[in-house]
């Protein structure tokens, strides 16, 4: 982030300290910040303004320009955060994002363009489980179909994001008599200092055609030769030579393929919708604390506001994975 480094340099921050500070932002955050910092520099250049030393009115004018392009609260909030990290106000001792007028402006944006749940209604988990059940026996499936079945089952029974599925390592998996335990040891979106990383618990399920443990074992047997040759520790591999670790976009595409073949409209629902579908279904049976733990949330408002979407189903069970699979009973 060259612009951020320039701002730090003007404050006399050493190169070594700059390097460490810049590591505090993850790749996704860097990409988002850079988008708005570039727009900010163009904005300042057109007005003959020093982009690192400005008045609060300049910040507000820039945010208004973003608002007028149709951006919503979350995007404008990201722009505010980006500027707060490198721009100083000459007419205030406040950090950009904490200035009362900037805070009030964002409050106005939230009223005019509130952040709403993406889905007003979510698909029925049973529809997709019915399709996955028909993909059997596992031994007869092509590697692509087996990969698609496993990743979709995992997404549904764990309530985790594609990002979490992408970073699963075979070396971290713990096989017990009646379950597989998968700790997520890589940095993911939910990762924070002193916060426990999520752990997926996958129980054996009585319906062999929907048992994620059996599907996992078949997948590992089928891909073992590719791992020996390439020393691939990532769980999911591409289905054609040279069988490299699958990217997040590939995993997302596999899930969307399964949803589409099950009859879900993927023009409306993304791969991430599995998270809302499974947690919303489980919420009709399990206590909120169990769902939050399984899906990796610390704030119940996140679930209630963005993921607890109405569907038309009900059942009984005693844990997240089994609860979701039992919806197909």
TrEMBL record:
Tyr recombinase domain: residues covered: 115-320
Keyword DNA-binding in annotation: yes
GO MF annotation list: DNA binding
SUPFAM superfamilies registered for this protein in UniProt: DNA breaking-rejoining enzymes
GO BP: DNA integration; DNA recombination
Keywords assigned: DNA recombination, DNA-binding
InterPro entries: DNA_brk_join_enz (IPR011010), Integrase-like_cat_sf (IPR013762), Integrase_catalytic (IPR002104), Integrase_recombinase_N (IPR010998)
Pfam families the record matches: Phage_integrase
PANTHER family the record matches: CORE-BINDING (CB) DOMAIN-CONTAINING PROTEIN, PHAGE_INTEGRASE DOMAIN-CONTAINING PROTEIN
Protein name: Tyr recombinase domain-containing protein
